[in-house]
Amino acid sequence: MPGELNAAEKWEPKIIAFCCNWCAYAGADLAGLNRKKYPANLLVVRVPCSGRVNPQFVLRAFQKGADAVLVAG
Amino acid sequence: MVAAAQHPNITIASYAEVERVEGFIGNFKVIIRKKARSVDENKCTGCGICWEACPSRNITSEFDEGMGKRKAIYLPFKQAVPAVPVIDREHCRYFQSGKCGICRKKCPSGAIDFKQEDEIIEKEFGAIVIATGYELFDWASVYGEYGYGQIPDVITSMQFERMNNASGPTEGEILRPSDGKRPRNIAIITCVGSRDDAKGRSYCSRVCCMYTAKHAHQILEKIPDAQVFVFYMDIRAPGKNYEEFYRRSVEEGAVYIRGRVSRIYRRGELMVVKGEDTLLGRQVEVEADLVILATAIVPSTGFQKISELTGITADKDGFFQEAHPKLRPVETNTAGVFLAGACQGPKDIPDTVAQAGSAAAKVTALFSKGEIETDPMIAEVNKANCSGCGLCLQVCPYDAITLKATKERVAGVERERNVAEVNAGLCRGCGACTTACPSGTINLKGFTNEQILSEVDAGCLGN
Amino acid sequence: MKRIGVFVCHCGTNIASKVDVRSLVESARELQDVAYAADYQFMCSEPGQKLLVNSIREHDLNRVVIASCTPRLHEETFRKAVKAAGLNPYLLEIANIREQCAWVHDDREEATRKASELVSMAVAKARNSSALDSTRIPITKSLLVIGAGIAGIQTALDVADNGYDVMLLDREPTIGGNMVKLDKTFPTLDCSA
Questions:
Q1: DSSP class of B153
Q2: Measuring CA to CA, which residue among C114, C120, C113 is closest to residue C37?
Q3: Which chain C positions have a beta carbon within 8 Å of B311's beta carbon?
Q4: Domain span at residue C179?
Q5: Is there a smaller number of Cβ atoms within 10 Å at the N or the C end of chain A?
Q6: What is the rounded CA–CA span in Å between residue A22 and residue B323?
Q7: Which pTM value belongs to this model?
Q8: Cα distances (angstroms) measured from residue B395 to each of A46, B398, B403, C38
Q9: Is A34 within 8 Å of chain B by CB?
Q10: Using an 8 Å Cβ cutoff, are C187 and B207 in contact?
Q11: Is it the case that residue A5 has pLDDT exceeding 60?
Q12: What DSSP character marks residue C91?
């Protein structure tokens, strides 16, 4: 039991973020430029516009094990 | 001005407005409305007999900022380019009552044409430079403490410019509008509408400190026994020789008082300007016989229309947004549309000229290439699979997709059907169409469905 | 056959201090279709680009992944280098391991793991990329200037002096804008007309 609890505490969600190249992706770059820290379990997929994000992409991310999907644009 | 008029490569379209802009960089189609002047530009010699003869006088001159008068047929000012007058139909007796027509009778070249109508012209351009400039903040509607524009001797700096101009309504003499007397005590108030979140705009208009220093200098030059009081918030003189210029007007005797003016009211023929001297920490009261307000620079009316026509954005104040504040100051987010001057933000003449030169360099660079290379990361239609449903047309923000008839042979029979077609010049590669397409027939090159899905897969697999 | 080359940039210490560059190269070698992987101090520098060009030729690479700063900074630079090596410039993918990894994560182990995920995503994308060609569109060499104040007039004159046609348009009956209303102009007090 203590082991399981430990695993639950350690659990971190995997987040896939679809970021528009012109705003949110640039914003993520800006966060880097300003050395703002955030957890490493977020992966950015660069898209040319949030309008490019087909719902199919979101479903695919969940299907392949993502815990959360962020669409930013 | 004359240089532009005489340049063999420049065509002037005055009294004209842009109605519609179609197309894309290198290939804009622009519909222009040339408003009816009621005067034939080709026949008119600019002799002036018509406006001399016109009986409708006493019309407030827009050019002179309401300080002077004009006729119903008029040139805005003597050196106007083109030197062709225009009939102000709202004030013209002929247009209002059908009687008069003196200008037509007197015109030696038969140029007056009461039946002239607006002319619509359509022309192709490779690039557009927007240089719509600025207007002045409408101070009278909000600054009750300065008299709501009801005190005749409270004028704007632009009105002062007209009055001080040798070709202006007073031929360069500084006179009180109310009684035509020469003022002796003059108060100038800066930041009227600028740096005022409550009643005006939050930004600094950038030029007022400097032209106020100029006005102080000009007043002291023309009226040697005058007293000039300048109420200011801060002096901003960050340009080559600017600080020296400001210092000069102080040394010439202009009295600078750091503080805001809280009220202006009449006392007999004079006005009392009440304010605060924040450096001395006390109230000040100045009796002035002329007050000049340095009003804020605001974008020209109609900026929304320009923004809609060309697809460029305006900021919260209505100034057009450049593509990058430091690295792409004259480009916009619409390729082929550039900015010059105060329409992008308040700026003085040296900066305006520099920016105009920069815009010209960008345009010249574009034209000298002769052709443009389009970004290949654009939408692509698989014609065999396209059903021609047209959903992509509806979502495309750039009107880059059209339905085009295509012929195909099915079971030996030739038939025609519509399929989507992408215009490579208009498509900006946003990919909205790919999401709308029910059959996945449109794909975005460089960001294909397969590419993004494989990226998602790879990102998730590391889980 | 796809032969992908992966190039990891140290960016001096910007990336290398937070990401274990060597192990990143090792993990990249394991990815499908990766034929070559290397690291270098500054990929964007002249020698860095030379390394890229030579490696593409030497190892017969037909896809390139560069793990470096944001593509918003050096995508064009690297596309040119890829093109110089004889490859289509659109067969390049960039893994952003500086702005979106090394600069935002403190833990070296986590940053390295994320960097390898970003590289594997970029490799996956590169495996599906294809050569793209831009089309050329002829342009109409004439300019429309909307607004004929000093900004518009100056632009029109400069472009016209270069030999191109310009239409200078203004809604008022005369050109000149606000500038012609002015008397003299600061700081030289010369006339404005």
A1: T
A2: C120
A3: none
A4: 142-191
A5: N
A6: 11
A7: 0.79
A8: 21, 9, 14, 44
A9: no
A10: no
A11: no
A12: G
- B161-172: per-residue pLDDT in tens? 999 998 899 999
Mean pLDDT for all residues in chain B: 95
Structural element, H or E, at residue B74: strand B73-74
**Residue of chain B whose Cα is closest to the Cα of A54:** B435
The position carrying tokens 């290379």 is B373
Residue B447 to residue A48, Cβ atoms within 8 A:
yes
Residue of B nearest to A61 (CA): B456
Same-domain check for residues C33 and C116 = yes
Which of B 335-394 lie inside 8 A of C, CB atoms?
A: 340-343, 348-349, 352-353, 355-357, 359-361, 363-364, 366-377
Q: Is residue B370 part of a domain?
A: no
ipTM: 0.91
Distance between B432 CA and the closest CA of chain A, angstroms:
5
Is the model's pLDDT at C80 over the cut of 80?
Answer: yes
Chain-centroid distance of CA B22 in Å reads: 21
Amino acid at B6: Q
Q: What is the pLDDT of residue C6?
A: 98
**Token pair 């003299």: residue:** C184
* Whether pLDDT at B238 is above 50: yes
Type of residue found at C125: K
Last residue of a domain, one of C75, C99, C127: C127
The answer to whether residues B448 and B383 belong to one domain is yes
Can you tell me the distance from the alpha carbon of B13 to that of B337, in angstroms, rounded to the nearest whole number? Answer: 19
Determine whether the interchain pair A47/B434 forms a contact, defined as Cβ–Cβ distance below 8 Å. Answer: no
Which two structure tokens, joined as six digits, stand for B148?
């709501």
Residue of B nearest to C139 (CA): B26
B355 and B206 Cβ atoms separated by less than 8 Å? no
Q: In terms of residue numbers, what domain contains B427?
A: 379-462
According to the model, what pLDDT value does residue C192 have? 65
CB atoms within 10 A of CB B277: 14
For tokens 């944001």, the residue is C70
